[in-house]
Amino acid sequence: MTTETLEFQAEARQLLHLMVHSIYSNKDTFLRELISNASDALDKLRLQALLDKDLQVDTSDLHIDIEIDADQRTLAIRDNGIGMSRDDVVNLVGTIAKSGTAEFLRKLKDTKDAAASKDLIGQFGVGFYSSFMVADKVTLLTRKAGEERATRWESTGEGTYTIEEVDEAPQGTTVTLHLKPADEEDQLFDYTKPWKVRQLIKQHSDFIAWPIRMPVAQPPVTETEGETEGEVTASATETVNSMKALWARPKDEVEKAEYHEFYKHVSHDWTDPLDIIHLRAEGTFEYQALLFIPSHAPLDLFSREAKRGVQLYVKRVFIMDDCEPLVPEYLRFVKGVVDAQDLSLNVSRETLQQDRQVQLMRRRLVKKVLSSVKDLLTSDTDRYDTFWREFGRAVKEGLLSDVDNRDAILEITSVASTHDAEKLTTLRQYVERMKDGQEHVYYVTGESRSVIENSPHMEAFRAKGYEVLLLTDPIDELWVESVPEFDGKRFQSIAKGQVDLDTEEEKKAAEAEREQRKEEFADLLSWMTTTLQDDVKEVRLSSRLTSSPSCVVSDEHDVTPTLEKMYRAMGQEVPRIKRILELNPTHPLVTGLRAARAEGKDDATLAQTAELLYGMALLAEGGELSDPARFIRVLSERLTTAL
User: Where is this region: C (predicted)?
Assistant: First the structure.
């Protein structure tokens, strides 16, 4: 048969090099990955046989065989599952069709610290490629169910691979590793030792639903013959794993280590999960679920191409990976398994979207995940802080998309506030600290904490001792516009509408002074509104400023400038919205401008001062000038005149 030599996809080649020559320490995990791949192939064959009655395959004895040849130093993992065609081999083995690969490689190269590099590697499931950590050469022989021709693939992991069609091969896939010499210093063990392979299977793959078979080891022979392990009878095999579905076992019978290994199996993650959610539902319809919250966010958490969802089984028959209808998009980081008892085996993603039982399961799973996070918040703040740091931005998307669970999401939401410069606060904690008589939850949005903390909008709130939430995530701009209140307290932006923090007594005491100022500044305000009419809709006196001369605010129901910019970035044209310029009536610059206006000084010079007041207000809140060059020119002229 003709043998072709092809090159790996560029990213696959880079990843192979990094894996073989990197600081990877736990090389044992290669066996778990290969057994997981074999298990997936058996799941897919069983499902295909149920759906396609014309597929002539024998599913009576689906299993995984492990074969060791100590003389040839080979380790083979064989399954009689779905197998692959030649095109499948090229597409699945010759490339890495997983989103986030390029970003993963870039971050790995940019990371100088060895420990941090390990963490990055742990964020990416390498699957089949892990073979090259322990093997000098890998041979793959596979025949797809229902096809007559087989495919042999072989590579040393150095950038190219060979592929050829062969006439005869058993159905399924055999991966043969030509093992490297053992190197204890590099933690590369001798995987030709049956006891070592058994140990790894029990440790990492005991829960696999299919039998993993190995030749039976005979009792040790005498030491005088120099043997330390038993002779092997090729015809006798034994099942090494227990094959118990972890989600079907009672919680008190499952060790934490078993949960952790199962999580690594379904997520292809190298780290332990942050939280484990094990539930069983009984009643009109039954299902079992074993869900995990990871301890770190995947690199593609905010990628459109990222896959989401959990594995779906029906009566322990694998149906599909990444079952999106079971998990909303804002919980896309949740991993695990759901095993339903009453669903049809012949389901598609489209029919699942409409299935009433699936919708009921989804609602229950979402409530359980959110309640588990709330339990972390009350019982283990360190783990909750980790959760919110990694997944908080994604969870807040649910405030827009999941109205039914909005209150539950608000209960677990943490944000920065003026109460503490370092720690985040929950909305519940904010409400508990509110002043007597305070009716609103005050917040301000912006690009960074440092910018909005120094914004003029904060001055009156700081002077009065009111706590303000500091919202800096892009998603915050959206949800605070859509969520009206929390625990009966309405959200109020300190950069919108009128702000009056005075008590009734303070208002009465200052009423006369306020009326007098209105009269004194009426001419200035009217003139500035006309002068700046291209940029602002109104100029008025401010009750929120104590030290700054001016600030710009939005009307109560207007779109914020940041949100306006976000819409434009998404290609949505929105009309330019004029804002309101507020003046501090006690600031010397403002009072001086009023006096100059009353004296009838040069209107052109005063107009420049008014323009500078507006530009200063924009810059103070972190905004952008429409014409920075003109602002600098006017400022230079006014400074020159003042000298």
Answer: 566-643
